[in-house]
Amino acid sequence: MTKALAANGAHRIYIVGRREDVLRSAAESINPEIVIPLPGDVTCRESLLGIAKQVEAETGYINLLICNAGIMGPKPLKAAPGAPLPSLSEYRAHALETPMEEFTNVYAVNTTAIYYTTLAFLSLLDAGNNKNNMGADVGSQVITTSSIGGFSRLPGASFAYNSSKAAVTHMTKMLATSFVPYGIRCNVLAPGIFPSELAMGIIGALDPGKTGEMDKNIVPAGRAGREEDIAGAVLWMASRAGSYLNGSVVVVDGGRLGMLTSTY
User: Fold this and answer.
1) Which residue in 101, 232, 233, 245 has the most C-beta neighbors within 10 A?
2) Of 45, 47, 71, 58, whose CA–CA distance to 14 is shortest?
3) Cβ atoms < 10 Å from Cβ of 77
């Protein structure tokens, strides 16, 4: 996302995360004149307010806020390929071994943090509207990263992850309605299977080929997502071309969701 925005006219991009070394490496690899690393914790209100204050002091406004934090969380017990189904008591025991805090922490990162990040940057988004540098038709926007997992009725990788992403999707729709009087749009990006630190376990289990090919019964496009797939979606949503979106969900999954038992 950052690469795409930097390559297509973004004046300044702030990237936020806990690991400063990762942020600095990303900024250096793209364009350190444009990409500014800001170490911070999106699960901490004071940290978010401090980051927003720093951005306000340096630029005074933002046009686009992308909330992209996410963790997977505890996984349900599954049978190994060819092995018998776990008994109900085994399934129950495995699940109850997980402390409740591990489950609810997924919501803290994947859902609650998005809500508070949006609140922390509202004034800067409003300032972006007042500056009107994107044009009246575009205006300020929040894009939240959900997942097709939020629509799947299968246990998948994590009950906590999938349900937290369902929460993000609906919460973003609520935010879109709430901010209509203020001229701030909110939309959801729901990716499918993309190579990432978070998704490597899932991708490995699907056994992709060396060039990323996948069984078309799993992903009709026949491959995992690529950088240009997510980049194209973000650029469309962020530009004049996507300015008629508000409260919308953009699914970028190569058709994967259509192969799952899901509610969309």
Assistant:
1) 233
2) 58
3) 15
Q: What residue numbers bound the domain in which 69 lies?
A: 61-259
- Angle, CA 118 vertex, CA 115 and CA 123 arms, to 5°: 145
In a domain, 156, yes or no: yes
Spatial contact of 187 and 145, defined as CB atoms under 8 Å apart = no
Q: Which residues in 210-244 are b (16+ Cβ under 10 Å) and which e? A: eeeebeeebbbbebbbeeebbbebbbebbeeebbe
The CATH number covering residue 117 comes to 3.40.50.720
Q: Does some domain include residue 51? A: no
Catalytic center residues: 146, 161, 165
pLDDT in tens, 183-219: 999 999 999 999 876 656 565 555 555 556 889 999 9
- Please indicate, yes or no, whether the overall pTM of this predicted structure exceeds 0.85: yes
Return the SS3 of 112: helix
Q: How many domains does the chain have?
A: 1
Query: Quick check: is 91 in a domain?
Result: yes
- Does residue 75 form part of some domain? yes
